[in-house]
Amino acid sequence: MSHPSKTLARPWMARLLAVATVAYTGVLVFATHHPRPEELLGPNPPSDKTLHFIAYAVLAGLASATWLTARRTASRGIATLAIALAAFGAVDEITQPFFRRHAEPLDWVYDCIGIAIGIAAVVAVVALARRVARPQ
Q1: What domain range includes position 37?
Q2: Is residue 51 within a helix (H) or strand (E), and if so which, with residue range?
Q3: Can you say whether the dihedral through the CA atoms of 21, 48, 39, 90 is positive or negative?
Q4: Rounded to 5 degrees, what are φ and ψ at 40?
Q5: Interatomic CA distance for residues 23 and 17, integer angstroms
């Protein structure tokens, strides 16, 4: 039987991560569709490709942490999550011209690289944490 605090913490943590993921997604959509991104970035920003990589690595990290916190198995559905995030990145890129921004296929490639790295990092941390927490 699981410890009572663990059964209460898991749904609470999953909800908190879900809220963080949704909030971050809103900020990301705003930032990627703002007509003058230089106003948001300040002086000496990283390259556009670096920003895409970081932005989507963080999104994938949050989304996969939410996914894995709400489920007991890491393997089921994580590929579907990656595909859904890649599709979201494509829609995000395709809709930018409606807001006086330029859509660049290479930006989406960097989004996808960030997604892969973000998910891989979270899966690795969760697997390590579960292994350490498992009774010997």
Answers
A1: 4-133
A2: helix 48-70
A3: negative
A4: -85, -25
A5: 10
Say which residues have a Cβ less than 8 Å from residue 113's Cβ, sequence separation at least 6: 53, 56
Total count of domains within the chain: 1
Check residue 42 and give left, alpha or beta (phi > 0: left; psi -120 to 50: alpha).
Answer: left
d(CA 80, CA 87): 10
Query: pTM to 2 decimals?
Result: 0.84
- Nearest Cα neighbor of 67 from 82, 88, 52 is 82
Token output for 120: 């891989």
Query: What's the rounded Cα separation, in Å, for the pair 40 and 1?
Result: 50
Angle at 80 between CA 83 and CA 34, to 5 degrees: 40
CB atoms within 10 A of CB 103: 14
Give the side-chain half-sphere CA count within 13 A for 22: 6
pLDDT digits 0-9 by tens, 76-117: 788 999 999 999 999 999 999 999 888 899 999 999 999 999
Q: Which residues contact 50 (CB under 8 A, 6 or more apart)?
A: 110
Q: How far is it, in rounded angstroms, from Cα 117 to Cα 63?
A: 13
